[in-house]
């Protein structure tokens, strides 16, 4: 069987959408059983993203280019799949993370070896089965389970892998960059963050407080772009922090299969130890606990990896809880006084994945959006993901973009063809 044409690829992606729709409940259940997140993923996010990629599958094309010797030479470009893609993904959202890699691979006509995280492999395996069910020939999409240091490293080092698309920690990202040198693999890296969420005094405070809280607590804080450094303008600091703490105290933490649950557990005992360790570090550093601050110890939840949504106040910029990615439900509230000052402090990080800004002043919003060094800036909202929008990092949050038309370039080679006509 030869390579699929763009129209065949489009048809295949749309069939895949139907298969996901038909197995939606099971896929959501697998995610919850594996990593605990409240049951029910966003169809718009998952299936909408694949439909977006299906549309692009037939819209990829090169260009004709006027050379410096018009009349003598004519040139055009061809877009070709980059080849074999190795995708290595984390555990914090197995269904969405797998789809984020499958969409562009299927749209561009690459082959894929995808390694899910050892903590949460089932959803990716099930998606692989669905692809075989709808007629994808075996060998095009391969789901390979295993540990990072063995299976992951084998993908990162393999001479026949042309590109690695990695989502995960900065530490592992560095290993992948080093491994890529062996055969000059292409890379796209979507790594961690310590994103600022800036609240000006003129904001809609009720909406901003909800956004600031859920910008950290959603998915128990296990989100790469969590807005964990909440900068609050001085005149509203006390009131705003009190609102956020109140929201934190009332969030329903519990079993992801309970429909009332808003926040599930952390993924593993290891992640629990890590997050509780940071809670201790914050207390030792002198930050003030306004809400939460520890594990849930009562009843059945005491046996699981449940952590209280935690708000630390009076956090200093250089504290470890304000500089290191915690990946748990831990918010640092930090006061500021002036525009230029908060821009400088927001940018004073080695990361650059996302930022949030709340203000009713349109000109201030645009000015700050231009000065923030991060791949996504959300104004009067947070954590809005859209298949049409490029998503990715500045600085140590990685390079390359996922989503949007931009991501497809990462999965394609461009070839220049020149014809002498004169
Ligand atoms: P990790 O980055 O080590 O794991 C992510 C993926 O990389 C998994 O599939 C894993 O098997 C694989 N991997 C691990 N070592 C590898 C290696 N040497 N070569 C190739 N692949 C390898 O993340 P981990 O250890 O699960 O979590 C540790 C911390 O990393 C978290 O507490 C969190 O701070 C951060 N993290 C950030 C994520 C993000 O999206 N920004 C996602 C997951 C973790
Ligand atoms: Mg690791």
SSE layout and pairings?
Blueprint: H1 6-22, H2 24-35, H3 43-57, E1 64-66, E2 73-81, E3 84-88, H4 94-108, E4 111-115, H5 122-133, E5 141-143, H6 148-157, E6 163-167, H7 170-180, E7 186-190, E8 196-199, H8 205-217, E9 229-233, H9 237-250, H10 269-285, E10 288-291, E11 310-313, H11 320-323, E12 330-336, H12 339-347, E13 354-358, H13 362-371, E14 376-379, H14 406-409, E15 412-420
Parallel strand pairs: 3-4, 3-6, 4-5, 6-7, 8-9, 8-13, 9-12, 11-12, 13-14
Antiparallel strand pairs: 1-2, 2-15, 10-11
Helix pairs in contact: 1-3, 1-4, 2-5, 3-4, 8-9
The hetero compounds bound to this protein are:
1,4-dihydronicotinamide adenine dinucleotide, magnesium ion
On the 0 to 100 scale, the average pLDDT is: 97
Number of helices: 14
**Percent strand:** 15-25%
CATH topology of the largest domain: Aldehyde Dehydrogenase, Chain A, domain 1
What is the CA-CA span between the terminal residues? 40 Å
Query: Superfamily at the CATH H level of the largest domain?
Result: Aldehyde Dehydrogenase, Chain A, domain 1
Structural shape: globular
Largest sheet: 7 strands, mixed
Structural class of the helix and strand makeup? alpha/beta
Order of strands, main sheet, comes to 10-11-12-9-8-13-14
Radius of gyration: 23 Å
CATH first level of the largest domain: which class?
Alpha Beta
């Amino acid at each position: 069987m030869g390579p699929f044409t763009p129209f065949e690829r489009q048809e295949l992606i749309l069939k895949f959408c139907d298969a996901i729709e038909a197995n939606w409940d099971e896929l959501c259940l697998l995610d919850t059983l594996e990593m605990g997140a409240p049951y029910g993923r966003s169809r718009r996010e998952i299936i909408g993203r694949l439909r977006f990629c299906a549309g692009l599958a037939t819209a990829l094309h090169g260009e004709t280019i006027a050379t410096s010797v018009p009349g003598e030479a004519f040139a055009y470009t061809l877009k070709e799949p980059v080849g074999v893609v190795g995708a290595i993904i984390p555990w914090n959202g197995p269904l969405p993370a797998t789809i984020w890699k499958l969409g562009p691979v299927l749209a561009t006509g690459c082959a894929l070896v995808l390694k899910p995280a050892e903590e949460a492999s089932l959803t990716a395996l099930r998606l692989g089965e669905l692809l075989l069910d709808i007629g994808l020939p075996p060998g095009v999409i391969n789901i390979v389970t295993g540990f990072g240091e063995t299976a992951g490293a084998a993908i990162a080092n393999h001479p026949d892998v042309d590109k690695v698309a990695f989502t995960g920690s900065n530490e592992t990202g560095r290993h992948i960059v080093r491994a890529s040198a062996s055969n000059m693999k292409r890379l796209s890296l979507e790594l961690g963050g310590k994103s600022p969420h800036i609240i000006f005094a003129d904001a809609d405070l009720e909406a901003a407080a909800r956004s600031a809280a859920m910008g950290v607590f959603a998915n128990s804080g296990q989100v790469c772009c969590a807005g964990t450094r909440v900068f609050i303008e001085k005149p509203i600091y006390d009131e705003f922090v009190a609102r956020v703490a109140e929201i934190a105290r009332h969030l329903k933490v519990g079993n992801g299969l309970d429909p009332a649950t808003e926040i599930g557990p952390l993924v593993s005992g290891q992640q629990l130890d890590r997050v509780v360790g940071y809670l201790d570090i914050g207390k030792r550093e002198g930050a003030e606990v306004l809400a939460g601050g520890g594990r849930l110890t009562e009843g059945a939840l005491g046996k699981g990896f449940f952590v209280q949504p935690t708000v630390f106040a009076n956090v200093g910029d250089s504290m470890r809880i304000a500089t290191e990615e915690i990946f748990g439900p831990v918010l640092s509230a930090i006061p500021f006084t002036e525009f230029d000052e908060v821009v400088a402090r927001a940018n004073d990080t080695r990361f650059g994945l996302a930022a949030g800004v709340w203000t009713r002043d349109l000109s201030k919003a645009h000015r700050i959006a231009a000065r923030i060094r991060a791949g996504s800036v959300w104004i009067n909202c947070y954590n809005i993901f859209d298949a049409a929008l490029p998503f990715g990092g500045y600085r140590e949050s990685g390079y390359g973009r996922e989503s949007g038309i931009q991501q497809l370039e990462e999965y394609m080679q461009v070839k220049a063809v020149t014809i002498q006509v004169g």
